[in-house]
Design goal:
Residues 7-156 form the Conserved oligomeric Golgi complex subunit 5 N-terminal domain. Its main location: Golgi. Residues 1-12 have a biased composition (Basic and acidic residues). By secondary structure, the chain is mainly α. It has five domains: 2-79, no CATH class; 84-219 and 227-266, no CATH class; 291-325 and 350-457; 479-619, no CATH class; 630-859. It has 33 helices and no strands. Helix 20 packs antiparallel against helix 21 (511-527), helix 20 (479-500) packs parallel to helix 22 (532-556) and helix 24 packs antiparallel against helix 25 (661-677).
């Protein structure tokens, strides 16, 4: 079969094969691709044989091959003749069926041709009519728009003529001598015509730019005809191609230019004079011209650029230098050589530089106030004006091109620009840093003026109780100068504390130094009092300095026993040191407490913890000393019971009328306390309060001890009376402070009254002891003590086995009701023990005690 392989290929061509045999060339040619994959993968040798064999030999092979094929076909036909006959008969039947189908297809083609004749021609006619109708609609639309354009254009001409008349009338107002009301009427008429003209121009512009024609009415337009709409949109005739329209275009452009010029003039004039009516008219005109967002954006941009330029100029050191040099021309006229422009002043020119800089800052504040008021006036009018149809505020229309409200944009621009240029100027010029940092309160007052000027026209507020976010944002922009000022303020406060404590324990601070620290704090707060934020920051610095002062004092205080020692002719060194420190802390805290009435609670609450710390330290230092004084006085008075008061008048030796030994010691101790202890505390009313407390304690303790002195004879009564007189004199002397007489002893109150009433009590008859009239000023406890002293009934401390000092201390620590209960219990106990005995004297004193108790309960 390999000999016949070439004839079985799909690309075999007899003519090409014959030509190849005649030419003696291989077939197929070597460069021809094969469509059979196997032939391409395995090239046949037949093509090479064809090129080598003779024509006669090739023909012989072909004849032999044909004969062989014929034999094979005959064999196949002979073998399958029955199935071939069946297929032949089926093909004949299929031919008949195909003839029927062919006839049916002919009928269908004929019917289709007839149907085409009935539909195509009407469709073509209808298509032509539709095209004509579309063109009629197009012509109608352009005529409608042209008519509307001509009407509006003529109306614009009339409106512009009215504006011209109003302008001419305005120019002739001086000659015509019109009244103010007439002038306002003419101005209002001009503004109305301007707004109407702007609306006309906007409509004309829309007509010129609108190429998407719409059917004039639903009746003339085909129903649901999207093809017609798209045709009108694609084929709409622009009005600029209409000669009747183009004739009006120059006048419209001239009117647009004039209206825009008048609008911009009115906007500028309205902002300059803050005339809301003029602003409203100009913004309405811009809205009618469809230029409102762009106009507002331009105005805000111009105002922001003005702010930026003013701030940059105010902090420009080179301009300050030029300004100073231009004024100082007399000093440079005689000089041949002129130095370059200085960026820093000399010691001689520093005042001129400072004056120039503050003048520029004052001008800056004026400019910033003007720009801010204009921005808020513009925003207010934009918020008031609304679209007559949708009621949408003009502000929303402007926000389509603005990132935020005009006021927010202004504050953001102001704060960023101010922060940038002030920081750069302070970084590049030590003069600006020093001047504005040291004079920060003055700079802050300028911004206070700025806030006050704009408060009338804006919703911003800067008061002690409330600060608007916008004002805080601006002040943060100059925070570097505030930080500089606060660091200097803290330095001054720390220097004051350092100078006060520089002497250490050898020269501790006193009243003057404490007042000096308080004065420094007060001065710093006074400098910042006008600003609510600055005064709080200064108060934090003051609190820090006071904490440092309290810490250093705390390290110097002596807490050993020697600090409260009352032994010796003079006070101990430790006591003197503590007195100095306490005096300094007290005077400082006392002066600072007065600031509560001068400053807001939010400011005082910052330094209040430090003040309380100083007061607490004073109390912790003084309390042990006062306790030691009371303990010392109580121990001396308790020695009263060592004296024998049981002697009668006959036993009293002649010439023995002096004070008792314990009383002499008490007088000396009181003198020591007054001269060596209390006199060292220069604390005003506080020292006087301590004096009164000591006097009250001394009187009360003495009265309690004297009331339980037993046995008590007539001589003892006289001795107690002399001791009372000496005590009264000593206490009067004790209450004199530094040569100035204090309040009299009777101002002490009940304690002094009890001392004065105790003297006659000693000499009363027994029957009068229970009489309230004879024991006025004496506590019931003292009267009961004296009754028990005269009676055989034991006193409470004797009954319970206490020392006299322990009992008096117990009385001080308990209430009067508890003390009376204790005495009543002792009487009841004594009655139970002696109920079988008949003792008239004891019964008398029991009755007296019962009467006193009854009177006390009745008075309660």
């Amino acid at each position: 079969m390999s000999d016949y392989e070439i004839f079985s290929r799909p690309e075999f061509d007899p003519n090409d094969y014959a030509n190849a045999v005649l030419a003696g060339e291989p077939y197929p040619p070597p460069g021809q691709p094969s469509k059979t994959p196997t032939a391409a993968a395995k090239p046949s040798s037949t093509s090479a044989d064809v090129a080598k064999e003779d024509i006669s030999l090739v023909l012989a092979k072909l004849n032999s091959g044909i004969d062989d094929v014929v034999k094979q076909l005959r064999a196949v036909v002979t073998q399958h003749h029955e199935s071939l006959l069946v297929q032949a008969s089926g093909a004949k039947e299929l031919q008949e069926s195909l003839a029927v189908v062919r006839k049916g297809l002919s009928d269908v083609t004929l019917s289709l041709e007839k149907l085409r004749q009935k539909i195509r021609i009407p469709y073509q006619n209808l298509e032509g009519h539709v095209t004509r109708l579309q063109r009629l609609h197009l012509a109608l639309d352009v005529l409608r728009r042209t008519a509307r354009f001509v009407i509006v254009a003529r109306r614009l001409e009339f409106q512009m003529s009215e504006m011209e008349k109003a302008s001419e009338a305005e120019k002739k107002t001086g000659e015509a001598g019109k009244t103010k009301e007439e002038l306002i009427g003419d101005e209002g008429e001009k503004e109305r015509n301007l707004a109407k003209a702007a609306l006309s121009i906007a409509e004309l512009t829309l007509l010129l730019e609108d190429n998407a024609a719409r059917p004039s009415s639903p009746a003339t337009a085909p129903e649901s005809d999207s093809d017609s709409d798209s045709f009108l949109e694609d084929e709409a005739i622009p009005l600029r191609s209409i000669n009747a329209v183009t004739a009006y275009l120059p006048a419209i452009e001239a009117s647009r230019t004039k209206v825009s010029y008048e609008m911009e003039t009115m906007v500028i004039q309205g902002l300059a004079t803050l005339n809301q009516s003029l602003l409203a008219t100009s913004l309405q005109t811009a809205y009618n011209l469809r230029q409102l967002p762009q106009l507002v954006q331009s105005l805000i941009s111009d105002l922001n650029e003005t702010v930026q330029a003013r701030i940059q100029s105010a902090f420009d050191v080179s301009k300050i230098s030029k300004e100073v040099n231009s004024k100082d021309t007399s000093s440079s006229q005689g000089l041949i050589y002129k130095s370059r422009v200085r960026t820093e002043p000399t010691n001689v020119t520093a005042p001129q530089w400072s004056t120039a800089m503050w003048s520029r800052l004052e001008i800056l504040i004026e400019d910033l106030s003007s720009c801010c008021i204009k921005v808020y006036a513009l925003e207010k009018v934009l918020n008031m004006k609304r679209d007559t149809v949708t009621q949408t505020p003009f502000l929303e229309e402007a926000l389509k091109v603005l990132d935020n409200k005009p006021s927010s944009i202004f504050w953001t621009t102001l704060s960023r620009t101010l922060e940038k240029h002030s920081r750069d100027a302070a970084k590049n010029s030590s003069f600006l840093q020093q001047t504005l940092g040291t004079g920060y309160p003055r700079l802050l007052r300028l911004f206070h003026d700025f806030f006050a000027k704009i408060a009338v026209h804006t919703d911003t507020s800067y008061t002690q109780n409330f600060q608007s976010p916008e004002t805080v944002l601006v002040l943060r922009a100059i925070s570097q100068f505030e930080s500089f000022y606060l660091s200097r303020s803290l330095t001054r406060l720390n220097e004051s504390v350092g100078q006060t404590m520089s002497g250490g324990a050898r020269a501790p601070p006193g009243a003057g130094e404490g007042m000096s620290i308080a004065r420094t704090v007060t001065n710093e707060l006074d400098s910042a009092k006008f600003d609510p934020l600055l005064v709080r920051a200064v108060a934090k610095n003051a609190n820090t300095a006071l904490e440092g002062f309290a810490g250093r004092v705390d390290n110097m205080l002596i807490r050993e026993r020697t600090a409260t020692s009352l032994i010796g002719p003079t006070a101990s060194t430790q006591l003197v040191l503590n007195s100095q420190l306490v005096t300094a802390m007290h005077n400082c805290a006392t002066r600072l407490v007065k600031l509560q009435d001068e400053y807001n609670i939010s400011v005082f609450s910052i330094i209040e913890p430090s003040i309380r710390t100083l007061q607490s330290m004073c109390k912790r230092t003084i309390d042990p000393l006062l306790t030691a004084i009371r303990r010392e006085i109580g121990a001396i008075i308790a020695r009263l019971h060592r004296v024998d008061f049981s002697k009668t008048l006959d036993d009293m030796p002649p010439g023995m009328g002096g004070a008792s030994v314990y009383m002499k010691d008490l007088v000396e101790k009181l003198s020591f306390i007054r001269k060596e202890v209390l006199s060292r505390y220069v604390m005003g009313d506080i020292t006087q309060d301590w004096t009164n407390q000591i006097v009250k304690y001394t009187l009360k303790t003495f009265v309690n001890h004297a009331s339980i002195a037993k046995p008590l004879g007539e001589s003892g009564k006289l001795q107690l009376a002399r001791d009372m007189a000496d005590l009264e004199f000593a206490l009067n002397t004790f209450m004199v402070e530094q040569g100035q007489k204090a309040a009299k002893l009777h101002s002490i109150g009940d304690e002094y009254k009890a001392l004065r009433a105790l003297r006659p009590l000693l000499f009363l008859d027994n029957a009068n002891l229970s009489s309230p009239e004879h024991t006025v000023g004496l506590p019931a406890l003292v009267v009961l003590h004296h009754i028990l002293v005269r009676s055989p009934i034991p006193l409470p401390h004797t009954l319970h086995g206490w020392h006299e000092a322990e009992y008096v201390r117990w009385v001080d620590e308990h209430s009067e009701e508890e003390c009376l209960t204790l005495i009543e219990g002792g009487i009841v106990h004594w009655e139970k023990l002696h109920e079988t005995e008949d003792d008239d004297d004891a019964e008398e004193f029991v009755s007296l005690a019962r009467a006193v108790l009854q009177n006390t309960k009745r008075s309660v």
